[in-house]
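Continuing the series of single-chain predictions for the mutant panel. This is the parent chain; the variants come on the following pages.
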Amino acid sequence: MADAVAESLATGQHLLVQAGTGTGKSLGYLAPALMRAAGASERVVVATATLALQAQLATTDIPRALDAVEQVLGRRPRTAILKGRSNYACLLRIRDQAAEDQDTLLGSTEVVEAMRATAQSPDSMVGAEVVALREWAETQAEDKGLADRDDAPSHTAKAWAQVSVPVRECIGAQRCPYGEECFVEKSREVARAADLVVTNHALLAIDAMHGGTALPEHDHVIIDEAHELVARVTGAASAELSPQQVERIAKRALPWLSDELGLEFLEMGDVLREALDAAPLEQVPGPDAPVVRAFEQLRDVTRKVVSAMGGKESDNEERQAQAAVKEVFDVAERMAALGDFDVVYVAERDRMGREVRVAPLSVAGLMREKVLNHVTTILTSATLRIGGDFEVAAGNVGLRREERRELPSPPAEDEELTWRGIDVGSPFHYAQQGILYITRDLPRPGRDGISDAVLEEIAELVWAAGGRTLGLFASTRSAELAARHVRENLKQHTVLCQGEAQLSELTRRFIAEPQTSLFGTMSLWQGIDVPGDTCRLVIIDKIPFPRPDDPLMQARQRAVAEAGGNGFMAVAAGHAALLLAQGSGRLIRRSTDRGVVAVLDPRLGTARYGSFLRAGMPPMWQTNDREVVIQALRRLDANAP
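Parent structure:
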């Protein structure tokens, strides 16, 4: 892998690298990237999926790689971690815009801990947390630190929102009275001086969408956990509007508006609410749809509001309110336009009524035009060979073979992007370490939810494994039903279910109590790493196809079909194959792990698309024989510590 990455950095050829769990792929790209950055004076950006993975690189992998590079080159390359604006405290918010009643609250981290210990009210807790955060940020300013949220005293999201500022509401360092001390500007200054900058997928997408303003100039990009890139970029390029949001921002803007314009803006909340309530929960079909008129009205009103605010004499609070209105205007304008490469749809907003959302039909065009055409790009993950090759992953991010029919994307300047894909393998012997059990006797999943036969099968498998089970379910309801059934029939086994406590607490218990089982949904398919005896059995109740009524997935499938391709295989089956690869990959996390992945959906073995789905899963020994699996699990349980 290191050789391939080094060659790609030298030649400029884009690269996809599948590297199995336990390969050490972080060092596989960090060593050549640091050598290239230091030796050729070329800046490399590493983008990973989450802030947690950024922290892991910063604290573990990068220091090791730097030590090695320093021994070879005689100098230590400079590195930096760069996050989005809202991850840093805002001194303007802290010093000039703090709520008046917070000034009377006692501060310090010790007070917060004392209040937690005595179970103080949530409001009092938030107030104390805010004061502690303000004190901490001021200390960071004095010490020339960065006031990064990950280094802050323990706090809730509500408290952090009172000491940070959304991206669109920042008035800019030149206008801000504390611009010279700004933590965000300091973080960017550090990044501009670094040889290697570590960021996340979302900030990479924001940099692409906004003309390279978020990241320093760079020559190469390495995208880790690349299987999540499409979802992360889609999220960064998406937006939503709700009646409550419009009303909240209208009230915020009222002090600087005439009575007539302020009332007109306030009424737009009701206009949008009535339009959404009358619209079907689906993609907006075209410009003649009645709901589009509400988008147009909101666009026109917010345009007038933006023009009426933010004059030369305006203060910082007015500029921030104007920025919030401008964001509503931009989203409403995008929704009213119904662009060819956008999907606009009406959706339920939990229990808060309805909202309208806009998402890109594909991220391939954005990645191709703004990233791939400009810098060498290396993508790596344990799951990039979807369906047995790299074509699906390459097409999804804008690296496409000309003969492959994919989602449409805006025309790009360069139609001949050269790339290659390699699989560097795995240190694990999957066929000796794991069994893939694909049932043939259970009923196919239906709309009525998980069947009694599947529940019985789950209980028998958990019994045979002695607990030690990670259950991955297609819905919250199925996970809850399965947990209840196992608890009722196997009273000696502890079953934790997602939603009953914080996921971090459930995961901690699952790891600490080896005979305990953990059942849950999507956040467990990719985000949990539990090696050893804690996880001997992974149960997948159903092939994780996207919801058939998901407007974005429906639109993407239609687009592929209209281009002459197979929408189901390109979108739905590709989505399911990725999740199956990730979910089944939870079992074998180190060379001593043993166990079973049980897929209780017979379609994986019988449907025509089954071989495509299986091709991306770890190559474990396969069987349809329940008794063979039961006996294997019982032997593992008998030999477990």
